[in-house]
Write a structure and sequence with these properties.
The complex is a heterodimer of chains A (266) and B (195). By secondary structure, chain A is mainly alpha-helical. Chain A contains 8 helices and 4 strands; from the N terminus they run ββαααααββααα. In chain A, a hairpin with a 4-residue loop joins β3 (155-156) and β4. Chain B has a 7-stranded mixed β-sheet. Chain B is elongated and about 95 Å long. The chains are: A mainly alpha (266), B alpha/beta (195).
Chain lengths: 266, 195
């Protein structure tokens, strides 16, 4: 377990460092993918717009996180308003930060009139890459422990040999990212990459949640995350079925057009 | 409707049927896996009655005994039944120096209620160093323990100062804060160990 890591003489807390790294990866990957998906002549503009949006989202997210945290301890912050500007990373509330940051970024992108389907595709790939980084963070900090097992590749952690679930997640998410990136650049239609990511990530969580040592459970020990993942997976596959049908229809139309052209030339 | 349109519709409906079949298969496999992997017995490490000690959230806090600045032995287990904040620090550590007045302030507020214990575990120093710190920064009225051999910091895998463990009344670690804290961060940790 590595609660801190040492880089070039600096001691950095592992969890916040990897959280920042994940956000950077998400931002960079999303911008590059969006640039590749943009029409010719607009690549640089779309990339810059996406990068600006993530910066705006980060700033708004920090403000939202600090205000959300201050709302919990409002009396303390009323007595000492200067604490609102404190650089202590611990006094940040995640959910309000995500809501405000996400809303601000999305509002900016919509105002710039970028197509939502392509934005969703690029963001999905950015999120996938960011989640892979976070799974590595969990491996280093010992969070998200795996269940005890007798598998030969199990590793010793906290008085038991356990599934290295965090590594499984890292490998699977990396594979999903590579596959979806290839499809996005070659043949996926607008929006298809987004739904494919939802399906793949839901499948990964459906599988891996069953290998974790502790879970949020419903009655009879059923893991709630697995149920939600299965619902999301089926919903994504339902949407993808229409993409598949449209693609097969287009393929058949192209085939018929090619056949007719051949007849005409004869 | 032309024959081409009919063929197109047939192809599309065939494709959609394939996807529906895939969804059905995945539904069946998914439900089976959810049932097989359900959590019938909590992992021994996370069970409420687990006696496994580890410096990790959810586990029992490793017990230790150290002497305070007056030379009296103090044992962590003696405070079972009360939430405990264990703060690893040192007089030379800048964020420790900045956070100590806030920690003392919270202790004075909470002491009257008698529901919280704060233990300062000083790293690698003697009582004289702590006394000099108190003269310069703040007089600490909560117990300050001397971990002169750093044995407890090794037990708790402390790698940076300050590190603060928030332990509930059952002796279980509920939160760990790395780095200097302000009053709001301390209250956040305390809220997780108090009813």
């Amino acid at each position: 377990m590595l609660p801190v890591i040492r880089i070039l003489g600096f001691t950095l807390p592992t969890a916040p460092f990897f959280a920042l790294l994940a956000f950077y990866v998400f931002s960079e990957v999303g911008a590059r993918v969006l640039g590749r998906l943009a029409p010719d002549g607009q690549r640089a503009q779309w990339q810059v717009t996406y990068s600006n949006a993530t910066l705006i989202a980060a700033l708004a997210g920090l403000i939202g996180a600090r205000l959300g945290y201050a709302a919990r301890f409002y009396q303390l912050y009323l007595e000492t308003p200067a604490l609102l500007l404190s650089l202590r990373p611990g006094s940040l509330a995640i959910l309000p930060g995500l809501l405000l940051g996400g809303s601000a970024g999305l509002f900016y992108l919509v105002r710039k009139q970028l197509p939502l389907t392509r934005l969703a595709d690029a963001t999905a790939l950015g999120v996938c890459a960011g989640l892979a980084v976070l799974s590595m963070r969990n491996f280093l900090t010992g969070d998200d422990l795996g269940a005890a097992t007798t598998m030969p590749w199990a590793w010793e952690q906290w008085a038991a040999r356990r599934h290295p679930v965090q590594l499984y997640e890292f490998v699977l998410l990396t594979g999903v990212f590579v596959l979806l990136l290839w499809r996005a650049y070659t043949r996926a239609r607008a929006g298809e990459t987004f739904w494919s990511f939802i399906a793949c990530y839901s499948g990964v969580e459906l599988l891996l949640e069953g290998l974790r040592a502790a879970s949020w459970t419903w009655s009879a020990g059923i893991r709630g995350v697995q149920v939600l993942a299965l619902v999301a997976l089926l919903a994504a596959l339902y949407v993808l079925s229409f993409y598949g049908a449209a693609a097969s229809g287009i393929a058949q139309t192209n085939e018929q057009s090619a056949t007719l052209s051949g007849k005409g030339s004869v | 409707m032309t024959s081409e349109m009919m063929a197109l519709l047939t192809t599309r409906s065939t494709e959609i049927r394939r996807w529906r079949f895939l969804m059905t298969v995945i539904f069946v496999i998914g439900v089976a896996w959810i049932y097989m992997s359900r959590l019938t017995t909590p992992d021994a490490a996370f069970a409420l009655d687990s006696v496994l000690e580890a410096p990790l959230k959810g586990f029992l806090a490793p017990d230790f005994t150290l002497s305070d600045t007056a030379g009296q032995p103090v044992q962590l287990a003696a405070f079972k039944g009360r939430p405990v904040v264990v703060n690893f620090w040192a007089t030379w550590c800048p964020p420790c120096r900045r956070e100590m007045p806030a920690l003392e302030g919270i202790w004075r507020e909470q002491q009257a209620k008698g529901k919280l214990m704060i233990l300062g575990v000083d790293q690698g120093e003697n009582a004289a160093a702590v006394a000099r710190f108190e003269a310069q920064i703040v007089d600490m009225t909560f117990p300050v323990l001397l971990d002169q051999q750093n044995s407890v910091s090794v037990l708790y895998q402390v790698r940076a100062l300050p590190t603060t463990y928030f332990i509930d009344a059952n002796g279980r670690i509920r939160d760990i804060k790395l780095g200097g804290m302000d009053a709001a961060t301390m209250l956040d940790g305390i809220s997780k160990i108090q009813d």
